[in-house]
Design a protein that fits this description.
Elements (H helix, E strand, L loop, with lengths): L10 H4 L13 E5 L3 E2 L11 H14 L5 E5 L5 E5 L1 H9 L4 E6 L4 H14 L5 H14 L4 H8 L3 H9 L5 H8 L5 H6 L5 H14 L3 H11 L14 H14 L3 E6 L2 E6 L4 H11 L1
Parallel strand pairs: 2-4, 3-5
Antiparallel strand pairs: 1-5, 3-4, 6-7
């Protein structure tokens, strides 16, 4: 299988392989499964039970092929860093011990590594991912750009994911259940919770596209639908606008006239504003 790249810092980057504790040759040792506790920073809450049962059947037949990563704790108890599915499946398979690599990790590293493992495997739903980003931002004062570099995503992608936390409870649940997409949820963020739920029912009942949802959201918020004007813009102006958007990582509107013009830079959070100020000053 081809190795995935561009996914931010992995385990060895955050906790160098040399920083192991104990263990046998190669750093792998067997640990009683009852002495391993779940990572308290694990962002993932929902697991596919069918997949777990299939993995448990494979473990019964072949054992645990890839060791779990754990951190030493008090009283001989270990905290799981990476390998949540393998740990749960091993318990289902009835294993008494599992192979582990022991490494020291801070609270921040526990959250980062659990997040990275899940993002790389696309295991988190959008709300779990947003909650994890929020924990990194609030508890460890990490900027959106720093979070993005950790998980191998753009800053805009991280910011857009965090915006989903502003959705109503009903919209967030529909997103978790897979009844709507992130695009649907973001289109409703400007509406009140009641209006979001009204539009949510229409999306589900009528199977509306994201574009249709955006149009209805504008109507519900009292905005007039955008009127398409014939483009009289110079290709050079459009090119400059695209370059500005690429450089600043956000939406930019450039209006050019005979005696000058205006540049409008959009931002969607205080974090984005701080980032823009750093780039512009």
């Amino acid at each position: 299988m081809a190795k995935r790249s561009g996914l931010g810092k992995g385990l060895d980057a955050l906790i160098p392989a040399g920083k192991t504790t104990g263990g046998e040759a190669g750093g792998v040792t067997q640990v009683p499964i009852d002495l391993i506790q779940r990572n308290p920073r694990q962002p993932r809450e929902k697991f596919d039970m069918t997949e777990l049962e299939n993995l448990a059947a494979s473990i019964r037949e072949h054992g645990v092929i890839q060791p779990l990563i754990v951190a030493p704790g008090r009283g001989g108890v270990y905290t799981l860093i990476a390998g949540e599915r393998r740990l749960q499946a091993s318990r289902k398979a009835g294993l008494k011990t599992v192979p582990v690599v022991i490494r020291n990790a801070s609270d921040q590293q526990l959250l980062e590594l659990a997040l990275i493992e899940n993002v790389q495997r696309a295991d988190l739903n959008p709300i779990e991912e947003a909650d994890a980003y929020q924990n990194l931002a609030k508890e460890f004062r990490m900027s959106h750009e720093t979070i993005a570099s950790r998980v191998g995503k753009s800053r805009v992608a991280v910011t857009n994911t965090l915006r989903l936390l502003d959705a109503s409870a009903a919209v967030k649940q529909a997103l978790v259940d897979g009844r709507i997409t992130e695009g649907h949820a973001r289109a409703m963020l400007s509406l009140s919770a009641k209006a979001q739920e009204h539009l949510l029912n229409q999306i589900i009942n009528l199977d509306l596209s994201v574009r249709s949802t955006e149009v209805l959201a504008r109507k519900l918020s009292g905005q007039r639908p955008a009127v398409k004007k014939k483009s009289g813009r110079s290709p050079n102006v459009s090119d400059v606008e695209r370059k500005l958007q690429s450089s600043l990582g956000t939406k930019v509107a450039l209006k050019h006239g005979k005696r000058g013009g205006t540049v409008t830079i959009y931002y969607y959070s205080d974090e984005e504003l701080d980032s823009l100020l750093e780039k512009l000053t």
